[in-house]
Structures are given as structure tokens and as C-alpha cells.
Design a protein that fits this description.
Elements: E1 27-31, E2 38-42, E3 55-59, E4 61-63, E5 67-72, E6 78-86, E7 91-97, E8 107-110, E9 115-122, E10 127-134, H1 138-145, E11 171-174, H2 186-194, E12 198-204, H3 208-211, E13 227-231, H4 233-244, E14 249-252, H5 254-267, E15 273-277, E16 292-296, H6 303-312, H7 314-326, E17 337-340
Parallel strand pairs: 1-17, 3-12, 3-14, 4-11, 14-16
Antiparallel strand pairs: 1-2, 5-6, 5-8, 6-7, 7-10, 8-9, 9-10, 12-13, 13-15, 16-17
Amino acid sequence: MKTEDFNYTLPQHLIAQTPLKDRSLSRLMVLDKKTGEVTHDHFYNIINYLNKGDVLVLNDTKVIPARLIGSKKQTGAVIELLLLKNLENNTWECLAKPVKRLKKGTIIDFGEGKLAAEVIEILEDGIVHVQMHYEGIFYEILNELGLMPLPPYIKERLEDKDRYQTVYAKNIGSAAAPTAGLHFTKELLEKIKAKGITILSITLHVGLGTFRPVVVEDVTKHEMHSEFYSMNKETALKLNKAKKEGRKIVAVGTTTVRTLETIMAKYNEFKECSGETKIFIYPGFKFKAVDNLITNFHLPKSTLLMLVSAFASKEFILKAYEEAVKNEYRFFSFGDAMFIK
């Protein structure tokens, strides 16, 4: 299976640069994964595609202002860190640019000494481990100094930080937003609940897996970066009950799919647990947990496009994307949504 098989042509102007004022006004493409049939709608009508008894599963991770721009204490050279994962004792795994300017023991200063990062290990692919030095509360300092880690294809400045956050974001720890959830408003979630649809949450902290492009020619040779996930007891019990009763489990976003399928593959049921996942879903994967999927339109040749191609077949997905381009849908993080039923 070749990475090139998951390529498609996207005009630059269709890459959404800014979020819509009203989250739920995004367009919605509905794709039938059995027939490939496509219909067009708006996200505020997502409720029409959900039935009483369905279970909607959200990823409640919260994005941290993970992008820090500082300077080397020794030379003043500008260094950028993207915080990926909180390891332990104020040690962070980061993506560093330019990594070639760093060595063990390098000190990077942020906010005129309010925060300093000491490089303690240099790994592959631009990854470094740093020890953070500061006085006070780390996340308060980060909120003051850090920038929202918008993807590189977004060139516009984000006016409102909260627009790169879901309305139900709760557990701090992501280096990117689970963007399928950006379309929901609190009012829409209330309407969904009132229809008799159960809403549950899991947590997956989005890390390097999202940023890392597939550079190998053979898809199966790509290795995912590990990301932290957790599921609580109540969610596990309700999901197991729904499965037993044959009710549909609707995942909001690829991160939710990866969490649910990781747990199901490991335990053959849903279970209160937490851990690291490196699950890589591409065509041929047998889904055990998820019935329907709400997702965005993904980058060419990305692991996310491979996941949705596994869910609805590569042929149907690429055809649907062609249709989305023709109909001028907005693509990627701040773009429109797709419901795969």
C-alpha cells in the first residue's frame, strides 16, 4: 500500500484560514460508507443523522498554548519549542526548531527569564527532552508566554484563542485541537442530549502523531508517535451496555476513534484504563468499536486520511473529497465537517 495512493489535489484557497463566527454553521458532507452516496447539509443539522439511543463520544482534551519562542542563553539565537508531552518532574518532550543549534545542556530563555528550558536529551526527528525551570504555576506562565499551536498551513492570526478549543475541552495536555469537535456549540449538544442521545467523553492528548507526515513510500512502514489516552469507569460501562444492546457508537474525530479502537483491541471490551497508544489505522483495519464517525477533511497523504479511508473505503473517500473540492468545501482544522454513516 503506497502513501501516494492517498494523495489528492487541493486548491490553496480551500484551506480554511479562520474559523467561522458561529461554530455550527460549517457545512456538513454526509457519506454513506456502504454505498458511497454523498449528500450536502450544514452542521447544525447533525442531530438529524443521530437517533435516540445512539452514543456520541467526544475527546475532552484541552489544548495548551504549546508554542514557545525563546532564545539561547549562550548566543541569543531564536529557538522555537512545541510542547508535546509532559513526562514527569517538569520534563517535557518537545519538537525543537532549529534542533541543530541545540546540544545537551543548552538553556533556552522565554519571557525574559520567567521560564527557562534546559535541554537534557536530543532524540530523532527534531524531538528533544527539556527540563523546565520557573517560579510559580507552570500553566499560568505558559498561558502568558505560549502561543496556540496552529498548524503550519494556517497563516492568519487567531483572534480568539478559544476558537481552537472545543466547547467541552477539560483535560489539559494537547499540542493540537481534536478539530472535529470544533463544530459543536453548547446549545447543539443540549439539543442532542434532549433527543435521547447519550454523550460521553474520553481523553486523548494530541501529540506528534498529528504533526508528523508520512514520509515512507510504503504505508505499513510508518510508525506512529505514542499519545496518552484515558477512559473512566462510567464511560466504559455505558459503552459496553450500548454495544450489548446494538446501539450505535458515534465517534467525534479520529482521536476518539483511535482511543476506542485501542481499548477494544486490548481488552475486547471497554474498560476503565489509561495508557499510551501508537495505533495506526489504515485500509484493512477491522473496526470493533465505532459505527459512525464525525470528522473534518484531512491533509493529502496523512495518517488521518488513511484512517477515514479504512472506515469508508479509499475509493469512496477520495471520490467524496473530489466532490468537496468541486463544491468548494473548506478544508482542514478550521474547515467543514463530514459525517460517515
